[in-house]
Amino acid sequence: MRKFIVSFAIVMISAGLSAQNFQSGFFLDGYHLAYRQNPAFTDSTAFRTGILSIAGATCRSNIGLSDILYPYEDRLVTALNKHIPAKTVMDKFPRQGARINLNLDFGIFATGFKRGDVYHTIDVTLKYAGQSRIPYDYVSLLKEGVIEKDFFDLSGIDASIDNYLELSYGQTREWGRLKYGFRVKPLIGLGHGRFRGRDVTLNAAGKGWTQDVHADIEIAGGLVTWSTPADNDSRLIDVASLGINRYKIGFGGLGLALDLGAEYPLTENLTLSASVLDAGGIKWLDKVYGKSDSYYKYDPNEDIDSEDKLQPLIDILDATNFHIQDKKANSFEVLPVSLNVGAKYKMPFNEDFSAAILYTYKPYRFYGYNEVRLFGCWTPLSWLSLDLSGARHNFGWSFGGAFDVHAPGFNVFWGIDSYSFRVTPQMIPVDKSNISMTFGVSFPI
Fold it and tell me: Does residue 392 contact residue 359 with C-beta atoms inside 8 Å?
């Protein structure tokens, strides 16, 4: 059982942050880092940022905190607590399974400056990216055990986490009325891990039980830690030893990505724009690849112990290890590319007001994310820009906003794409965890 919980923990860890996905800042006037969403979005203002002066987080999910924690008496308990009815939990959990994507950006350095007719940008950013999928039967098994039903399809459980350093150099140019730009981004892979259950089933019908397990695991760099079993068999990966080392940075691979963008004023008031981001990927080197292809059959003469509904998992997973197939495997992992298409209209009665629309598509590992966002933008003062936005996407509706203070000597920006009206005292969304937030400070030079 402990190994199954470990794999579940890895799924959840890789599930909760990228400023590049910060949609509310797309049309924000004065926002120095707008070129990250469209390399054509630059002006003549030179700027710089310091270490960790920029941070961004993005989470996309079809479940939320209210699906994991439940009120009981005067406290919160997990969905697996025996006092929470199984039907209550399973009726809320998505039938297609949970899907969670989480990205985190730490800006180390950024600068922009103009030389002649060309605007140049340089960035160094540390990134984390996690994606996971949790099948419905997985949660059903943990909550209900093998008493309520006797067959569980656990296929499709999948969790991956990547950590890499992004270096970038970009240019923005003009050709007539067309403004276009690009960013070339060498990538240094620091850590990669993935657990994938290709075909996993549990059959506990009648007496005894069987489980068919076909799963893969891959590890590169220093992010994911593991060890061999207690008997020191170097050919095996002990599932219980898997963990995340947040303090170790190790070289894991090299890659390259490209951003492209364009902006065109169709009329005096209407401007069209489009961008393609993160076209590329990382080649992970010296990757440890392990595989489990096993069929377990337990004594059919013994009834399942009704006092311990998860006994099949306890026995089966205590015997599960991954056989190392290759310790020098190489593979190329494509980044999830982003597509943005937008239009902004300045009001003819007052140029301080404008309306905009933005379509975004991003093919995550397990599904395609589509979003249409409407904006209302206002620049009430020469040093202050504001916007509010509403969006419709795969997981429902969301409401966001952003502001940018571009005072002499410094620039402060903050924004959120999906504001949740129900949050914990720690500002964690209670409902579906769809949030994108960024904050930063830059300095004009």
Answer: no
Q: How many domains does the chain have?
A: 1
CB 1 within 8 A of CB 308: no
Give, for 146, the enclosing helix (H) or strand (E). Answer: helix 136-148
Helix (H) / strand (E) element for 312: namely helix 311-318
pLDDT reported for residue 139:
85
Is residue 185 very low, low, confident or very high in pLDDT (cuts 50, 70, 90)? very high
In a domain, 272, yes or no: yes
**Separation CA 289–CA 8 (nearest Å):** 20
In this structure, is the dihedral angle defined by the CA atoms of residues 74, 79, 85 and 88, taken in order, positive or negative? positive
CA distance linking residue 182 with residue 188, whole number of Å: 20
Contact 165, 126 (CB under 8 A): yes
- pTM for the structure as a whole: 0.83
Q: Structural domain of residue 261, as residue ranges? A: 2-336
Identify whether 157 is part of a domain.
yes
Q: What gap in Å lies between CA 149 and CA 136, rounded to an integer?
A: 13
pLDDT on residue 74: 79
Angle between helices 136-148 and 311-318 (to 10 degrees): 120
Is residue 228, in this structure, part of any structural domain at all?
yes
More confident position, 164 or 245? 164
148 Cβ partners below 8 Å, 6+ apart?
86, 140
Residue 14: DSSP 8-state: H
- Whether the CB-CB separation of 49 and 440 falls below 8 Å is answered with yes
**What are the backbone angles phi and psi of residue 150, rounded to the nearest 5°?**
-120, 0
